[in-house]
Amino acid sequence: MTSPLKICDNYPLIEKNTLGLPSTARCYAEVNTIAELQSALTFAREKRLPVIPLGGGSNVVLGDFLNALVVHVNLKGRTVLSRDQDCVRVRAEAGENWHEFVLWSLSNEAYGLENLSLIPGAVGAAPIQNIGAYGVELKDSFVSLEAMNLESGLVEYFDRQNCGFGYRDSVFKREKRDQYIIVSVTLDLDATLKPNLGYGQLGDLVARRLGGRAPSAVDISQAVCDIRREKLPDPSEVGNAGSFFKNPEVSSSEMDRLKQAYPDIVAYPVGQNWKLAAGWLIDQSGLKGMREGAVGTYQYQALVLVNHGGATGQDVLSFSSMIQQKVNDKFGVLLEREPRVYMESPQAGLRS
Ligand code: FAD
Ligand code: EPU
Is the full-model pTM beyond 0.85? Predict the structure, then answer.
């Protein structure tokens, strides 16, 4: 006989989010099986509570009290589904740690995720914002996912087209927001390594380390990890959620205006438009390493907001609004937040 799902009341989330924000969930459950997930959803429906899925908590800003059932998705499993001379199809359950999954794929001679090494969080959250780094995005290898519909409790299938992936974006942040919990992800990886070394300093670092030798996937993964460790704060030491804003996209006429005023502006073309480096905009606004109370920008990467200790979700939001205001005043560019915000507001319920 299976034991009933354990649901905790007034559960502290401070250790469940990488910004280290104090937050209490009215109800909290860790689910290890699909049946437990279904029980959790039944409970939430009966109590009329919204459901908030949580993986590693590395891309959320949490308010002091969440009048919700927070579900820690802890479904485990990784499988090689098939292999031919070009392609290795793999599947991982949502609760697998992303970085461990990347290392597992490399040890199974399945390539393509090495540039996505060391991104914190769980596999199930990866499609939510189509995680990306060093010139690679999840969508590049994505085949499909399975997600439980919060209303019906049934598992539905989404292929790549249904997911509507974009830069740090998917349908799960837009029209299908708050409607599904992702339970598994299937990817097609390469059977032979196709190094992707075009981004920033990655190619140079690999070349310097290896001399003339062709890099292995593990070499690339290690170089990515080293660059990331240099630039990004380790959440176990300083609370943070990675980049706090997306890199904004502007039209070419807007780019002309900016370029005239700021010839050194860091930007790269995307189709007809330009993507600006938000970190550069914040840095050039004189805000790198600055601090107000417990919240600040990271001294080595202005795009990362850090909790120096004792900050609340509201402190982080207020600080981020100040940054948005100052960058907008200087450059006329609006920065959009990247992490999902869960703040309780009695009128509007949970907002982002
Ligand atoms: P959580 O923070 O737990 O959740 C994020 C959102 O997804 C929430 O809305 C949550 O409700 C939802 N969610 C979580 N699990 C599920 C599920 N199973 N089904 C449905 N919804 C779900 N991101 C990048 O893209 N590239 C980077 O290079 C990068 N670097 C980072 C570096 C650092 C130091 C940190 C702290 C963060 C970084 N991030 C980066 C952001 C973050 O790691 C990713 O967005 C990651 O995918 C979040 O995973 P998580 O499990 O922690 O999600
Ligand atoms: N820059 C500055 N000052 C700063 C920070 C950056 O001038 O304080 C300049 C850098 O010199 C560089 C440019 O901005 O020329 C870009 O910086 P970086 O290479 O560090 O990348 P990023 O654009 O800041 C993005 C992602 C990261 C991802 C890296 C690597 C977004 C919002 N962020 O950062 O993703 O790891 O590229 O691909 O797209 C995340 O999403 O949480 C995240 C960490």
Answer: yes
pLDDT tens figures, 312-331: 999 999 999 999 999 999 99
Radius of gyration of the chain from its Cα atoms, rounded to whole angstroms: 21
pLDDT of residue 78: 98
Residue with CA closest to ligand 1 atom 48? 121
Cα(214) to centroid of ligand 1, in Å? 32
- Under a CB-based contact definition with an 8 Å cutoff, are residues 305 and 238 in contact? no
Residue 216: pLDDT above 60?
A: yes
Determine the atom of ligand 2 nearest the C-alpha atom of 134. 38
Question: Given a cut of 90, is residue 130 above it in pLDDT?
Answer: yes
| Contact of 9 with 26, CB cutoff 8 Å | yes
The CATH number linked to 313 is 3.90.78.10
Atom 24 (ligand 1): residue with closest C-alpha?
Answer: 131
What atom of ligand 1 comes closest to residue 122's alpha carbon?
51
Q: Are residues 55 and 98 in the same domain?
A: no
Question: What is the CB < 6 Å shell around ligand 1?
Answer: 18, 52-60, 73, 94, 119-122, 124-126, 128-129, 131-133, 180-182, 232, 235, 240-242, 340
Residues 6+ apart with CB under 8 A from 246: 167, 168, 278, 335, 336, 337, 338
Question: Catalytic: 100?
Answer: no
Given a cut of 60, whether residue 348 has pLDDT beyond it is: no
Considering its fold, how many domains does the chain have in total? Answer: 3
Q: Residue 350 falls within a domain, yes or no?
A: no
